[in-house]
Amino acid sequence: MMTIQEKILDLSSQEKHTLTTATEAALLTSYGTNSLAFFGLAPENRHFLAPRGSGFVSYRLVNNVAVVLGDPVCAPAAAEQVTKSFLAICAQQHWRVAFYQASPAFLATYHALKLHTFKLGEEALLHPQTFTLRGSALANVRTSARRAERDEITISWYDGSPPTTVIQQLEQISQTWLASRTATHAEEMGFSTGRLDELMESAERADTIAQLSQPCSTALRAVPRFVTGVAATSAGTACAFVTFTPIYGTITPAATTIDQQSGGQGWGWSLDLMRRVPTASPGVMELLLANALERFRSCGAQVVSLGMVALADTSLEMTTVERQLVSLVTNRLHLLDHRETLFHFKQKFQPRWESRYLVTNTTLALPQIALAVLRLRNYAGGGVTKLLRGSNKQ
User: What backbone torsions phi and psi does residue 251 show, to the nearest 5 degrees?
Assistant: First the structure.
């Protein structure tokens, strides 16, 4: 009997694309708990489907470095075999490998395969079923949100693709937001975050994943869609917006609460774009996020990610060498200038911080790997521009 992998290889290109997408969609909605898993199915990424369809790996190839988005998407029991199969393919092609924003759940697998881990930062996770604005810890968020409400800010939510008129409003906000940034950060990032010009495509991809996984869905499985929240002034002018991408995973009756000690998280949404015009009411972002958490709680979501803050280390986990690299990145290359502001904003919501890592199959090519990640993320300005230009000449 032919395996799934052999059947895929035997199909025409169109049939191959359909079957592979359906297989990946089923895996994603069951095991795509990493907040970057959704971005893995973007059309510009490559996909390695493991033998017998046991899992897949989404990656982008840059200068012979296969940069993987998050962790392999597979059942925990298949993690080592799927990762090992992918590493074997990369070895055949003489590619370096880097798992970008890998999670603690896969560390045992990476260590068993003799891979090297470096802490990148920490992701801010909230649990909407237990989240509350009450209490002194959230007083700052509460006060800011109420100020925006007093300024008569209203919030509108859109599941899937927003109307064309709304997209036009978002473009105006985004253009103003980008113009207000420093010249070295005036471009949109990419790879592990969305771009405004990809919003419609992302919303449609989330809908397709939900539709493909529907035949195998049960009442216990939630398939979240792409969500956009828009804040408007009392005059009806849009002044800020946020977008959320899906976090997948199957929920069982035994998983109705979050085990924060084990790091389990379930399904939900991840904050992606977050933009406002400079003249927007203070507290508009706090109001948007507080409103989102209420909305997601009513949907039954188990987790909401506010995203990773690069180089954050609340657990004091970084080694001396890693701290030296932090100094190089911030002081000499002038990267991540807004990370402290971003950390303090997210910390106001009292999240659970969970470590994220860069996992590689070599330490000798670490500069090459770092440049590949910087290029994919579209970093520019400061010392990194010279580094990227220099790497083009090699």
Answer: -105, 130
